[in-house]
Amino acid sequence: MLFFYRITLLLGPPSSGKTTLLLALAGKLSKELRWSGRVSYNGHDMHEFVPQRTSAYISQNDLHIGEMTVRETLAFSARCRGVGSRYEMLAELLRREKDANIKPDPDIDIYMKAAATEGQQTSVVTEYVLKVLGLDICADTLVGDEMIIGISGGQRKRVTTGEMIVGPSKVLLMDEISTGLDSSTTFHIVNSLRQYIQIFEGTAVISLLQPAPETYNLFDDIILLSDAKIVYQGPPEKVLEFFESMGFECPQRKGVADFLLEVSMISRFVS
Q: Can you give the residue ranges of the ABC transporter domain (predicted)?
């Protein structure tokens, strides 16, 4: 079970079922594939709504048009996906601040004023996402590709994330987004997503292979997979206590995430 305002770390060795789980939650599994279980959103089965509008699956591959700038890429995605209710949310926030005589932060006030202007729904959400993801410093730079010099790998990964969150989706399902990135860049991306989830009342499941300790500490919950089965799901504060009760103790000076991956692979060696 996933809750709003929380980000969940999905851990597991290769071929443990992480991608399959994320695709199932996003409603993107092939209809020819046989699987059991039930996926629901707020009690509604997936056939009662369009899960592709409610959730966003973000793969580890960054596919962009190199000739477009970062701002153009996000603006195009916003028009394709629809800005959803965020325009109304920002406009309502502006109205309440005015009624309560609250002076907003100068940086955010720019976006609030734009939200109150009719016809600016798409641009205000695009600019806000640029700010949240730290892409405002390269907003007018070409994304680039193998033939065109553009933004860095970490910025390109943020653009991939931004393409999904400019839409109405409140459930983010992210598959090994740290591929090709250093630990510092991964930390800043996850931290940006954490802020986004808090602001827009969403939830996120992020699959990472070997997160650094500082990145691991950003998560509210953990799902540990082994051979397509959930070994543990719960808060990170209780995971070591859980495995100690099972006879597995984390050695000193060893990262918790690395320890969990080793434990999840034990069943493979035993079998």
A: 2-252
